[in-house]
Recover the amino acids of this structure.
């Protein structure tokens, strides 16, 4: 590009050539930037989508072994690292390759020997990149780990703040934090030192090449074996090599990070999806007809190390009846529901709906048939309306109002300025516990499901509201099969059958009056709750001391 | 309020806010010497960068042109010197900058963490752990980039640009003006690009926040999604955001794809202009060829900072947003203050007195309504009553987790508000129902790494808490690591461990929130024995669930609806036939019959 004789005749010819060459180069750079970077962004989005859709179908047990934070970092930081490799990484390699090949070709055309000499320093780049790449990678890993240690320490400190403060351990905790924070600082400094040597060293390499050219090339010009123009041009090409040579180092680093990230993402994608998604096509089954639920000798444990959560449960709930389950915390009530919904996998031929083994049912058929209110309500950020409509594709306002009125949610909603469009915040933070439960109830009711499963659905609702909900709900429950889990006798007393679970086994079953007459565990629960009610109703009139 | 908190993570802020910047820079002030060194070496490094094209010029014009080999060799040596010197200067500059930045970050992290330690418990009810962790870790990390690449990097860029412009003007001012002719256009293009890049960046940050929130929500709510069979709907919703994010970024790809080649073209244009004009001058022998070589090298170097501009701008913007969030956290004052001049009692005896104490967490909803009682040194007081009656609030007020509305709480004759907070809490050993275990080994969980507790005292505490035989059977003994989710220790053993913790700290006044969970009979008898050790020679205030604890108390206070309803010992209260008698009937008679802790029903 640069003229051989600077004092040439056509002064405009060569500068114009430079400009044209630069424009051609610019056009190519533009198009491969658009293509490669665009491709990397699209690939990133596709990858994220694929991981997301896979993640949704993993069994619940997977999420108990993998913390949300860990999964989040795979979905964000790791995917980003892969994108950088695909985008900047490949862009820089292509760019570097083309520039290196082109410049070298021109340099060799001017003077092969000088090219060879100037490239003497180049192996240093490979050595530097390999050496530093490895160590930088190791130290950045260790800095990352230190950062998660800091996170863990802060998390623990905040979670245990009551203990920290009451044992006056604040200073002690601060001292502990100072230690890991200084460790972090020290490790960061090691990393900074490595980077601090690495980048300048790359410049040294190109600087040495420039020195060699100045020294040998300068002599050649002196001896007249090279023109001054050639010498200048040679210097120009050498200058063009600086950036690609540094880029190589960067790409190597990104390659290491990107492949490590890819393998972590691969681990998520390799996890086996929940078997509930293996069932037959949805059309084959119509659960909207009958509704008999049948547990046959169901035994279940959450893992090989854990004892059985349910033992030999045999229970038939005829269509259209209400079955209530009572029992202490940890007695297996929620497990029963989790299995009915196939959130965990029951053994084959243990749970049947209308005589069909639920393990043979496709997930959509099962979830469509069941309206479910879970014990710990999960609401999504968005409006109340969105949340009520969560299980639905469409519904008109009348249906929403009807469902929320049945759930006794309507009065509360009407007090909100935004009515049903009120945004409830992350996990519904702007609603009270009772309001959350009632929203979840409306969410289940509006589906108009043949089977209703209420897992401790009224725990945050006061007794009076619960009574109102139950009165409304009774009409709704008519003709549906209901599985009702509760601590309160008042909630379950009208059920067609009441089952008392203890340590995963059914110890009593029958109607309210029958169970009372047995004077067993149910009776004890009943008596205690009666007293609780008496105590709660005590008023000042009875007089303290 | 929650709305404010929610939107806090979406603060984008300006790219430059003088008020915030001044406050950020204050953290660098203690390291001004380091920074001065860094600045000096930055200057030196820029000097070597500026010198190299000049040396090339001298070599060409003065020695190569005149055939002076010795002079050329000398120039080559000098050139090599600038290369090596540049390396050393750059390294020292990077290192010192990074060191000052890391120190400042460490200070900031410490300040946030210490600040959090001084907050009252109500603060932690309002601020979720995750958010505070983001402040302490991620937001500080973002500032790191500002310290290391932002501030010094921008200065370095300014040095280079002005230095090169100056050098060129000095070498040949006419040629320099020609070379810089494209510069105003470049500044204009850069500003145009920067504005676009900023908009895209802001938009992408907002969408990214939503994308991450959506991801987090789906992972946390996966059970609900599966139970309602809404995987496809969630997928569609996610895809929407994901595509939106992708499209915003594709726009930024387009801007970059246009901007960078344009800069290259302008760089080539400048070089072309220099060749054209300079070439003409050489033709008239009024310019030495070395000048043109130097100009070309200068121009190549000059365009690099312009290319990095957008990236630095984004770093600044992210850092401003983070620092604003950090300062918001730091500016929240603690509501429970340590007294400026704490009073200490004459003697530590363990005397507790409540005088007409009222407490409310929310204004207008008192949870304690005129509680008055006295616990004499060595006395055991049991608090019983229904959940929500105010037993826990009495404990919280005594430990000064919350400040009371009116009345007074005296410990050894001094109002708790006049005590030094830490000193007060040292007198009060609180043993909580849900035993919190820290990661680390068993010994650390007894001593809480408090160096005042000797190993002998720790072992003695474990022995008296009846947990020593169990610990000694563990493969690691006292050095056995405690698992986060506590699988090393059973529920009962965790309680014993918390007893050992209290024994090791040996408080004058013991506050015990008895656990309600049922344990097997063997563990229960260990707990009883440990409890006897724990209560020895101490004033004790116990939220009691075990009948034996209640019966052994010197006095029982029946707390109901924020008031003391009845008091007396077990026999007296039973004889009265009031609330206690009913509670007893309800809950404790079962224990008496079964000889174990009853299942906690609605009453605990």
């Amino acid at each position: 590009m640069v003229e051989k004789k600077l004092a040439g005749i056509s002064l405009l010819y060569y500068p114009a050539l430079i400009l044209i060459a630069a424009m051609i180069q610019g056009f190519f750079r533009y198009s491969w930037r658009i293509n490669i970077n665009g491709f990397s962004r699209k690939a990133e989005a596709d990858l994220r989508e694929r991981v997301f859709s896979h993640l949704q179908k993993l069994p619940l047990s997977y999420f108990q072994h993998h913390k949300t934070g860990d999964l989040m970092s795979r979905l964000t930081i790791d995917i980003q690292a892969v994108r950088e490799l695909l985008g900047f990484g490949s862009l820089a390699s292509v760019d570097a390759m083309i520039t290196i090949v082109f410049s070298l070709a021109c340099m060799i055309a001017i003077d092969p020997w000088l090219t060879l000499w100037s490239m003497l320093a180049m192996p240093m780049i490979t050595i530097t990149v390999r050496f530093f790449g490895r160590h930088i990678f190791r130290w950045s890993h260790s800095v990352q780990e230190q950062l998660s240690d800091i996170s863990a320490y802060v998390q623990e400190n905040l979670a245990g703040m009551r203990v920290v403060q009451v044992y006056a351990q604040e200073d002690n905790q601060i001292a502990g934090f100072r230690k890991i924070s200084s460790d972090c600082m020290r490790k960061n400094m090691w990393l900074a030192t490595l980077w601090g040597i690495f980048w300048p060293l790359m410049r040294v390499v190109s600087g040495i090449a420039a020195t060699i050219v100045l020294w040998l090339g300068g002599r050649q010009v002196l001896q007249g074996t090279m023109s001054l123009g050639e010498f200048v041009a040679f210097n120009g090409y050498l200058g063009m090599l600086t950036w690609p040579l540094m880029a190589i180092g960067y790409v190597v680093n990104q390659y290491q990070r990107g492949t490590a990230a890819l393998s972590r993402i691969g681990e998520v994608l390799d996890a086996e999806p929940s078997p509930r998604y293996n069932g037959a096509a949805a059309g084959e089954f119509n659960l909207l007809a009958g509704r008999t639920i049948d547990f046959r000798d169901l035994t279940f444990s959450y893992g090989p190390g854990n004892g059985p959560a349910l033992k030999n449960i045999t229970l038939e709930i005829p269509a259209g009846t209400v079955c209530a389950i009572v029992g202490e915390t940890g007695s297996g009530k929620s497990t029963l529901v989790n299995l009915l919904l196939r959130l965990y996998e029951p053994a084959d031929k243990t749970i049947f709906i209308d005589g069909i083994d639920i393990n043979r049912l496709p997930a959509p058929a099962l979830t469509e048939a069941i309206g479910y209110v879970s014990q710990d309500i999960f609401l999504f950020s968005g409006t109340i309306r969105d949340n009520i409509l969560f299980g639905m594709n469409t519904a008109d306002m009348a249906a929403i109002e009807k469902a929320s009125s049945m759930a006794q949610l309507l009065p509360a909603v009407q007090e909100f300025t935004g009515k049903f469009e009120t945004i409830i915040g992350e996990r519904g933070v702007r609603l009270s516990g009772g309001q959350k439960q009632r929203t979840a109830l409306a969410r289940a009711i509006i589906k108009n499901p043949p089977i209703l499963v209420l897992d401790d659905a009224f725990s945050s609702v006061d007794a009076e509201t619960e009574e109102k909900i139950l009165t409304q709900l009774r009409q709704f429950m008519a003709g549906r099969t209901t599985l009702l889990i509760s601590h309160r006798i008042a909630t379950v007393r009208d059920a067609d059958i009441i089952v008392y679970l203890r340590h995963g086994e059914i110890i009593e079953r029958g109607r309210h009056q029958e169970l009372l007459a047995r004077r067993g565990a149910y009776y004890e629960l009943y008596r205690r709750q009666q007293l609780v009610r008496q105590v709660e109703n005590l008023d000042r009139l009875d007089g303290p001391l | 309020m929650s709305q404010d908190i929610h939107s806090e993570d979406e603060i984008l802020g300006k790219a430059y806010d003088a008020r915030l910047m001044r406050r950020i820079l204050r953290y660098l002030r203690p390291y001004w010497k380091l920074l001065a060194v860094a600045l000096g070496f930055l200057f030196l490094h820029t000097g070597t960068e500026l010198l190299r094209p000049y040396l090339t010029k001298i070599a060409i014009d003065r020695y190569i042109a005149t055939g002076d080999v010795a002079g050329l060799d000398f120039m080559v040596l000098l050139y090599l010197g600038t290369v090596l010197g540049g390396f050393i200067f750059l390294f020292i500059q990077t290192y010192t900058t990074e060191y000052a930045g890391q120190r400042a970050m460490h200070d900031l992290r410490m300040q946030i963490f210490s600040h959090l330690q001084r907050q009252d418990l109500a603060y932690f009810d309002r601020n979720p752990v995750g958010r505070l962790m983001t402040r302490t870790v991620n937001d500080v990390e973002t500032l790191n980039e500002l310290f290391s690449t932002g501030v010094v990097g921008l200065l370095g860029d300014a040095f280079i640009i002005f230095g090169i412009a100056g050098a060129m003007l000095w070498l040949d001012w006419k040629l320099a003006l020609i070379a810089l002719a494209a510069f105003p256009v470049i500044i204009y293009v850069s500003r145009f690009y920067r504005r676009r890049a900023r908009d895209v960046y802001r938009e992408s940050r907002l969408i990214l926040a939503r994308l991450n929130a959506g991801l987090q929500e789906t992972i946390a709510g996966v059970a609900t999604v599966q139970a309602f069979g809404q995987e496809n709907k969630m997928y569609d919703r996610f895809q929407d955001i994901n595509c939106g994010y992708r499209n915003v970024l594709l726009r930024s790809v387009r801007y970059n794809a246009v901007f960078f080649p344009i800069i290259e073209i302008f760089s080539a244009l400048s070089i072309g202009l220099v060749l054209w004009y300079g070439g003409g001058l050489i033709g008239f022998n009024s310019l030495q060829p070395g000048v043109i070589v130097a100009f070309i090298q200068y121009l190549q170097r000059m365009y690099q900072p312009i290319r990095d501009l957008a990236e630095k701008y984004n770093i600044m913007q992210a850092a401003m947003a983070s620092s604003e969030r950090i300062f918001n956290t730091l500016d929240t004052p603690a509501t429970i203050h340590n007294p400026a001049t704490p009073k200490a009692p004459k003697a530590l005896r363990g005397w507790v007195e409540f005088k007409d104490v009222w407490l409310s967490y929310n204004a207008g909803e008192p949870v304690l309504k005129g509680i008055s009682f006295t616990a004499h040194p060595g006395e055991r007081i049991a608090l019983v009553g229904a959940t929500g009656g105010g037993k826990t609030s009495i404990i919280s007020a005594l430990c000064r987790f919350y400040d009371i509305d009116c009345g007074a709480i005296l410990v050894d004759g001094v109002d708790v508000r006049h005590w030094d907070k830490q000193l007060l809490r040292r007198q009060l050993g609180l043993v909580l129902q849900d035993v919190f275990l820290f990661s680390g080994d068993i010994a650390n969980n007894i001593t809480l790494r408090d160096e005042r507790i000797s190993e002998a005292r720790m072992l003695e505490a474990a022995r008296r808490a009846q947990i020593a035989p169990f610990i000694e059977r563990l493969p690691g003994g006292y050095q056995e690591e405690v698992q986060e989710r506590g699988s090393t220790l059973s529920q009962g053993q965790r309680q014993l461990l918390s007893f050992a913790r209290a024994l090791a700290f040996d408080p004058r006044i013991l506050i015990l929130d008895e656990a309600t969970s049922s344990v097997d009979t063997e563990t229960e008898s260990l707990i009883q024995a440990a409890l006897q050790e724990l209560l020895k020679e101490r004033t004790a205030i116990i939220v009691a669930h075990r009948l034996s604890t209640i019966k052994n108390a010197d006095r029982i206070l029946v707390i109901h609806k924020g008031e003391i309803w009845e008091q007396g010992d077990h026999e007296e209260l039973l004889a009265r036939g009031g609330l206690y008698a009913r509670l007893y009937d309800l809950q404790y008679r079962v224990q008496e019959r079964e000889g174990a802790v009853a299942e906690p029903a609605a009453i605990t």
